[in-house]
Specification:
Blueprint: E1 11-19, E2 25-38, E3 44-56, H1 62-79
Antiparallel strand pairs: 1-2, 2-3
Length: 81
Amino acid sequence: MNGESPDKNITTNSACFSPITATIGSWLSANFNYGDIYDAAGKVKGKGMHRVDLGEAPRTNGDNYQDMFTWAEGLFADSFV
């Protein structure tokens, strides 16, 4: 880390598209924050990532299937310049 302090407010997310058939798809996403981890008694036992939000497609359909390819094309373009 070259002597720098780690970020204090770390957040990240995860997204997943799933083809259901050859023309229908779905998706889900989750958001995470870094912070204290508590044991069953409410005592801090360390630090880690916590899921703070979960989303999913309201229904499976062809739009989600097409969005899956749009999302992938953007990801690949950003990753493999």
